[in-house]
């Protein structure tokens, strides 16, 4: 009897401790005030932050741009030993919550703030930092790479209305290609993610039926009967790789790293576009003309929709999105923020928008086109501390 | 009761006979009291934590409870876009996979424990026990990755096709094979909980008095009959080990979500089909959930998971007590 109760209490205790830690972690946003690592030498090698004081900056949010941000942070801090920047990839949702609660100096998200979120975080600036794209991958033994898809056909496949690879609708897009008479297995993300948001945004834009039945969101209710959910980009890639006759969607950077065949997509101009850095950048350039100012609401911004509406968008890949960093326009409203920290933060963001972009392509991220860089420059110039512009000259 | 009273008088008598009883140093007595206070406070922390946890889960799921009420437990739709949340498929998925995992793991771990404690030469069994304990310490995400990259391809290519072709006339074993699914998740869970269950059971068997076995064999019992006696002697402990395993299976999120296919549907079409569990949906959707109601619905799932765990544990305890009272046999103590 004692052994059993000991075991029981032990099991309960473990379950409870783990669960409570998880709950505290999720309910309470990450705290600021990390201990700054002491600099080994006091000499700053770069001019803009004119201080040798220890500066520690905290950010949190999206996981998609994390490898790039991590690279930026290590490169930026290498030249400035007194600066310590800490970025926690807790997810876009967590980033937005931390931004609203003002527990981080900057937040990152794959989606812009909604109107409701903007009301709770007035004075938010949106800074698109890098570009993501969603790529359709498939596993068809014996079929070639680069199959053609149209938005409508893709929506029907994910709705479960087109169930076989030999369906006339797919055959019509791929004349001369031998397609197997096998049932299609749909693979989608099971975890909520910005990738799913962008993909469902696209399907909703190109298919009335998808918009009515499913809609757009970070997690949606998937209607296809033969579907499996896999966790993360790597989970989807592995599942597609292992499951013959499957189709799925992954982040562009991921499709480049794995050897899965990916499809070309028809855009509004009627061309089949292969996803690559050029075609993705082109999409952003077409969309950039209608972007709002950094201090306006970005809730309706969608490169997907801009490109889909624009029949002139030649050469533009249709499923493209920004990943944002969000900061407050008036930095003194953040608890524990001082002028030096504000100056370093803005300097860091300025560096990311300019020098940082050179690191993007090497990590399979798409660098910002000059029109967006210009927009971001104007946004960064709006940032103030106690009413004083932080960027001078 | 009788045993208790007898025990007490015996203890009292024992102390009474100590010649130094009256001159025991005060420090020892205060130390005794301090230790008692310490254990009491540690024990009350457990109660406090459970209370706090239930309270905060309830607080967090308030919007969902207000909106859906009891419907949350019986509805079968989960649509974050439209804001409709019902958890019945998740509850069924959790209970089914855990029950199946237990069904597979119980005979397996009994066998492992008996082999280790009774049948294996001592020097091997020490090594093997160590390995079993090592398996119990492997993090679940490692099991999940192994499941995704090793177990799933193996099951899909080698194991499932013959099962389907021979047992395909049963609806349970018909339908498309994805690799991941209900059966895969249950198998992986069984593999995960077997080490911890068998480690506990091995200790139990090691603790059964050797006189019991010796007496049985002296009376002419075979080894198998003696072992049966041991199992019956240790059964309350075996049930406790099983409950521990069940607890781990019910709450497992990471490994399950990587192999179950994460399909939100009331019932899968077969054991090869994909399904979903409560812990898995928490692991999947919590991080990027931004909508208030969605977050609240997820916390509500967490609350439900706690309640279901509680109910399962209480049921298991009741079964143990009832079983021990009704069926006589050899009782410990």
Structural summary, described in words:
Chain A is built from 14 helices and 13 strands. In chain A, the strands form 3 sheets. Chain A has an 8-stranded mixed β-sheet with strand order 2-1-3-11-4-8-6-7. The relative contact order of chain A is 0.15. Chain A has 393 residues and is an alpha/beta fold. In chain A, helix 5 crosses helix 7 (194-206). The longest helix of chain A has 26 residues, at 2-27. Chain B is built from 14 helices and 2 strands, in the order H-H-H-H-E-E-H-H-H-H-H-H-H-H-H-H. In chain B, strand 1 (78-79) and strand 2 form a beta hairpin.
Structural key phrases:
heterodimer, A: 393 residues, alpha/beta, eight-stranded mixed β-sheet, three-stranded mixed β-sheet, B: mainly alpha, 74% helix, globular, disordered N terminus, disordered C terminus
Strand proportion of chain B, as a percent range, falls in under 5%
In the CATH hierarchy, the third-tier topology of chain B is known as MetI-like fold
Strands side by side in the biggest sheet of chain A: 2-1-3-11-4-8-6-7
Number of strands of chain B: 2
Q: Mean pLDDT of chain A, nearest integer?
A: 86
Q: What is the H/E order of chain A? A: HEHEHEHEEHHEHHEHEHEEHHEHHEE
Global shape of chain B: globular
Percentage of residues in helical conformation of chain A? 25-40%
Radius of gyration of chain B: 25 Å
Radius of gyration of chain A, rounded?
A: 23 Å
Helix content of chain B: over 70%
Q: CATH class of chain B, anyone?
A: Mainly Alpha
The CATH architecture of chain B is Orthogonal Bundle
Helix and strand composition category of chain A: alpha/beta
What is the approximate shape of chain A?
globular
Stretches of chain B where pLDDT falls below 50 for ≥5 residues?
Answer: 1-12, 326-333
């Amino acid at each position: 009897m004692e052994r059993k109760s000991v075991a029981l209490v032990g099991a309960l205790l473990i379950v409870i401790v783990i669960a409570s830690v998880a709950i505290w972690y999720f309910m309470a946003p990450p705290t600021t005030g990390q201990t700054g690592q002491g600099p080994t030498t006091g000499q700053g090698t770069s001019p803009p932050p004119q201080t040798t004081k220890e500066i520690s900056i905290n950010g949190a949010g999206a996981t998609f741009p994390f490898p790039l941000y991590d690279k930026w942070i290590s490169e930026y801090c290498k030249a400035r030993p007194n600066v310590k920047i800490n970025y926690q990839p807790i997810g876009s949702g967590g980033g937005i919550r931390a931004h609203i609660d003002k527990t981080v100096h900057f937040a990152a998200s794959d989606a812009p703030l909604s109107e409701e979120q903007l009301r709770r975080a007035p004075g938010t600036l949106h800074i698109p930092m890098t570009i993501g794209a969603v790529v359709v991958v498939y596993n068809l033994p014996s079929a070639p790479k680069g199959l053609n898809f149209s938005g409508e056909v893709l929506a029907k496949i994910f709705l479960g209305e087109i169930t076989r690879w030999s369906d006339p609708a797919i055959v019509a897009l791929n004349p001369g290609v031998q397609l197997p008479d096998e049932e299609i297995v749909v693979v989608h993300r099971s975890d909520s993610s910005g990738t799913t948001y962008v993909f469902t945004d696209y399907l909703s834009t190109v298919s009335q039926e998808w918009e009515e039945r499913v809609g757009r969101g970070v997690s949606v209710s998937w209607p296809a009967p033969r579907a499996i959910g896999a966790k993360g980009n790597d989970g989807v890639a592995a599942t597609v790789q292992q499951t013959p006759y499957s189709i799925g969607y992954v982040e562009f950077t991921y499709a480049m790293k794995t050897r899965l065949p990916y499809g070309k997509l028809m855009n509004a101009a009627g061309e089949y576009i292969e996803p690559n850095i050029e075609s993705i950048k082109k999409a952003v350039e077409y969309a950039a003309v209608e972007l709002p100012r950094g201090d306006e609401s970005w809730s309706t911004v969608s490169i997907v929709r801009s490109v889909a509406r624009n029949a002139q968008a030649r050469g533009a890949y249709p499923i493209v999105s920004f990943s944002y960093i969000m900061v407050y326009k008036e930095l003194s409203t953040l608890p524990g923020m001082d002028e030096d920290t504000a100056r370093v933060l803005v300097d860091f963001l300025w560096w990311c928008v300019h020098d940082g972009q050179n690191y993007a392509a090497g990590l399979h991220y798409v660098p910002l086109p000059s029109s967006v860089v210009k927009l971001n420059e104007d946004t960064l110039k709006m940032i103030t501390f106690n009413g004083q512009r932080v960027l001078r000259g | 009761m009788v045993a208790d009273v007898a025990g007490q008088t015996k203890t009292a008598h024992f102390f009474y006979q100590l010649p130094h009883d009256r001159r025991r140093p005060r420090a020892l007595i205060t130390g005794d009291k301090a230790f008692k206070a310490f254990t009491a406070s540690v024990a009350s922390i457990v109660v406090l934590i459970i209370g706090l946890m239930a309270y905060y889960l309830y607080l967090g799921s308030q919007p969902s409870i207000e909106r859906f009420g009891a419907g949350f437990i019986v509805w079968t739709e989960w649509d974050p876009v439209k804001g409709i949340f019902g958890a019945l498929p998740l509850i069924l998925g959790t209970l089914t996979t855990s029950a199946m995992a237990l069904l597979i793991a119980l005979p397996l771990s009994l066998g492992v424990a008996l082999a280790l404690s009774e049948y294996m030469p001592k020097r091997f069994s020490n090594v093997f026990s160590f390995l079993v304990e090592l398996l119990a310490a492997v993090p679940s995400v490692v099991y999940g990755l192994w499941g995704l990259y090793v177990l799933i391809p193996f099951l899909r290519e080698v194991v499932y096709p013959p099962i389907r072709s021979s047992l395909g006339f049963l609806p349970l074993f018909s339908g498309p094979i994805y690799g991941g699914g209900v059966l895969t998740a249950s198998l992986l869970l069984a593999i995960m909980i077997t080490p911890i269950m068998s480690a506990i059971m091995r200790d139990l068997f090691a603790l059964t008095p050797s006189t019991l076995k010796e007496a049985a064999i002296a009376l002419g019992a075979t080894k198998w009959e003696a072992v049966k006696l041991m199992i019956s002697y240790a059964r309350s402990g075996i049930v406790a080990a099983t409950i521990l395993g069940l607890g781990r299976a019910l709450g497992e999120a990471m490994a399950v979500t990587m192999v179950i296919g994460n399909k939100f549907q009331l019932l899968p079409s077969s054991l090869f089909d994909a399904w979903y569990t409560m812990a898995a949906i928490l692991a999947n959707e919590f991080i990027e959930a931004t909508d208030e109601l969605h977050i609240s619905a997820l916390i509500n799932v967490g609350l439900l998971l706690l309640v279901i765990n509680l109910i399962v544990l209480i049921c298991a305890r009741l079964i143990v007590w009832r079983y021990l009272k009704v069926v006589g046999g050899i009782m410990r103590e």
